[in-house]
Write a structure and sequence with these properties.
Bound molecules: nicotinamide-adenine-dinucleotide
Largest sheet: 9 strands, mixed
Number of helices: 13
Order of helices and strands: HEHEHHEEHEHEEEHEHHHHEHEEEEHEE
Radius of gyration: 24 Å
Number of strands: 16
Structural class: alpha/beta
Shape: elongated
Helix content: 25-40%
């Protein structure tokens, strides 16, 4: 018979997962963790969510949602399947599998801030039980799972449990894997369960269990040989985006100077049926991933005496884009014999990309700050944000302005091309429109300045 510290067999746990009898704990109920909890609940698997944010816990307890695209009805449907949320880590011991989805930002020196992962791991360790599966989903540099998370779990659990390594599974072991989140917020063309899930286990049984865990909610799992390969896979995907966006951003600047329309060029190049994937220019990178994740790798690379030059160059170009927007607004106002100083500017769209309610790292915030610094009187409109308060790097304290009387502004600056906007009407009413996203495509007007 198993003692509390002994493993149920791998087959027993796998069967429990496949029969939807396993209890799953999801730590970090943000943009990644909450939808994941709902996916498991939809499959009638009992989920306990863990978060340190009491407001989230109490909102969920009331059957309400705090993420725009998740409805209260979805939360209530999950609750009917046993979904609860708590900040009590003692509940971890009841879980068969634990998935960690906490933030991985950069600190003020642009270095990885793993404090959320380490805090979470310290909180889990005392409640760890033999035979549990622990999966990290947070995006991070290769080695985090094995070098940072596993040593804390091994050192701080009460039963001297070890992470299972090799092919044999001992009685006093737990399982560890890394599986990156690949969600594309706002993308409605691919169902989340159709996005293949990459899984790297610390040993083959851990990989097998993690594949079973994700196999209940994803149509395809892609096992790789280690957590580090899975960690690097996610970074490759995001660096690929970051570098290609920088490439089109740089080519956009050249096209503007040459009088060519980069959007037309990209459209034409996209007709090539092989070897070309379109990326689009914009006012700068935003979101929790693309502006942040590549620097996790460039930091880690230094340990290996290696400089990741593509990442640095892409970072330089992308970081410069809000400054380019500022100078374009200045140039456009200048043609109207006005200056940025004292100009009334309405920023349209502050989310980091269209049709989502996420402000993190949004270039709009930098652009607003730059405009204000140069003396512009800035207002904004965004259907998703009635208020912009304080974030990690900004403190704007602005209230949304209604979308009316556009003629009163010296410049309407389109930063995020939300679908809700009627761009034709906006151009008609405005004195001057600076468009960073090609939102006014097809509208002919001397008032429009592309940037
Ligand atoms: N948002 C995305 O589209 C996306 C896509 C792919 C990958 N990722 C990655 O997934 C991870 C999570 O991102 P997110 O967007 O969900 O972040 P988020 O900030 O929306 O949510 C994280 C949650 O973790 C909670 N938390 C922080 N510390 C905790 C702790 N010690 N214990 C319990 N809860 C804690 C926070 O309160 C918050 O609710 C990050 O590594 C991110 O890079 C995000």
């Amino acid at each position: 018979m198993n003692t509390s510290a002994e493993n149920p067999s791998v087959d027993q746990l796998k069967a429990k997962i496949q029969n939807r009898q396993a209890r799953i704990g999801i730590i970090g109920l943000g943009y990644v963790g909450l939808p994941l909890a709902l996916l498991y609940s939809e499959q009638k698997i009992q989920v306990t969510g863990f978060d340190i944010d009491q407001r989230k816990i109490s909102t969920l307890a009331k059957g309400e949602s705090y993420i725009y695209r998740i409805t209260s009805e979805e939360i209530q449907a999950a609750q009917a399947q046993g979904f609860t949320a708590t900040s009590d880590y003692a509940q971890i011991t009841k879980m068969d599998a634990v998935i960690i989805c906490v933030p991985t930002p950069l600190n003020e020196y642009h270095e990885p801030d793993l404090s959320f992962i380490t805090d979470t791991t310290h909180s889990i360790a005392p409640h760890l039980r033999a035979g549990q599966l622990v999966v990290l989903e947070s995006t991070t540099y290769p080695g985090t799972t094995e070098e940072v998370m596993v040593p804390i779990l091994e050192k701080e659990n009460k039963d001297s449990l070890r992470a299972a390594r090799g092919t044999e599974v001992g009685a006093y072991e737990f399982f560890v894997a890394f599986s990156p989140e690949r969600e594309d917020p706002g993308n409605t063309t691919v169902a989340r369960r159709d996005i293949p899930k990459v899984v790297g286990g610390l040993n083959p049984p851990a990989a097998d269990l993690a594949c079973a865990l994700y196999g209940t909610i994803f149509n395809r799992t892609v096992p790789v040989s280690s957590p580090a390969v899975a960690e690097m896979t996610k970074l490759l995907e995001n660096i690929y985006r970051c570098v290609n966006i920088a490439l089109v951003n740089e080519l956009k600047l050249l096209c503007l100077r040459m009088g060519l329309d980069i959007w037309e060029v990209i459209g034409a190049a996209s007709t090539k049926p092989f070897g070309f994937h379109p990326f689009y220019p914009g006012p700068g990178l935003g979101g929790h991933c693309i502006p942040v994740d590549p620097f996790y790798l460039s930091w880690k690379a230094k340990e290996w005496d290696f400089r990741t030059r593509f990442i640095e160059l892409a970072g330089e170009i992308n970081t410069n884009m809000p400054y380019h927007v500022l100078s374009s607004v200045g140039g456009a106002l200048n043609r109207h014999k006005k200056s940025v100083n004292g100009a009334r500017v309405l920023v349209l769209g502050v989310a980091y990309k269209k049709d989502i309610d996420d402000l993190r790292e949004s270039p709009a915030l930098t652009i607003i700050e730059l405009l204000q610094k140069d003396g512009a009187v800035v207002s904004y409109n965004d259907p998703y944000f009635p208020f912009i308060g304080k974030g990690r790097k900004y403190d704007l304290q602005m209230k949304r302005t209604e979308l009316k009387d556009l003629g009163q502004y010296d410049c309407v600056l389109i930063v995020t091309d939300h679908s809700d906007y009627d761009y034709k009407k906006i151009v008609q009413e405005a004195q001057l429109v600076v468009d960073t996203r090609n939102a006014t495509k097809g509208i002919k007007s001397a008032k429009i300045v592309h940037c």
